[in-house]
Amino acid sequence: MSTRSLEFHTAIDQDAWLAMDKEETNSDDAQQAGSGNERKWFVLKVQSNRERSIRDSILRRIKMEGMEEHFGEVFIPTEKVVETKGGGRRVREQKLLPGYMMIEMEMTDESWHLVRSTSGVGDFTGAAGKPIPMEDEEVRRWLGQDVAAEEEKEAAPRPVVKFDVTVGDQVKVKEGAFAEFEGVIDSMDDATGKVKVIIEIFGRPTEVELEHWQVEKA
């Protein structure tokens, strides 16, 4: 073999070795990037009063795009509230963070675009346009409320009554033994729905306890 031919084959061997080495390096870099791209929780700003429909749209798009492995839960923090009206009690779910939801996902260009291009989605919370994942303590705190609710399904939810009056309001009693009397709200209990009203009886201010639906603003 001539010297020129030997040099030619040596050059080919060197180029092949360099190409193989570069391919392995790129593969290692990709694996390292992927391993660091684990699922994390982010807070998402969305259009208020559309949280549930937006969540359903995100989940539907994840399934359509076949990206289930890149996403976990899409969570709307809520609490159960008991409302008392007209003597009846009704349980409903109340959003704790109107206009926000939590989403568990791998933050990649594709997953970011899927979420951000969904109708009704504003942006991820973060700094300088960069989504910032939630702290573990925050995640446990918000998800813990939902877990507690699931574990206590059989138990009655904590009653929280919404009043149409406030302390200090002049009110008129609509029903009961003190109907047509007028007085001033002294205190309210949002757990029982009771209100204490100072009413003048026989010329003396007297505190009486009533159901909140028994009174109205005078």
Q: Uncertain runs with pLDDT below 50, 5 residues or more?
A: 2-35
State which percent range the strand residues make up: 25-35%
Averaged pLDDT:
77
- Pairing-aware structural class of the strands and helices? alpha+beta
Instruction: Count the DSSP helices.
Output: 4
Roughly what percent helix? Answer: 25-40%
Q: Tell the overall outline.
A: elongated
Task: List SSEs in N-to-C order.
Answer: HEHEEEEHEEEHEEEEE
Summarize the structure.
This protein is of the alpha+beta class and 218 residues long. Helix content is 33%, strand content 33%.
Task: Please characterize this protein's 3D structure.
The structure is a single chain. The protein is of the alpha+beta class and 218 residues long. The protein contains four helices and 13 strands. Strand 11 and strand 12 form a beta hairpin. A five-stranded antiparallel beta sheet has the order 12-11-10-9-13, with no helix packed on it. The protein has a four-stranded antiparallel beta sheet with strand order 2-5-1-6, with helices on one face.
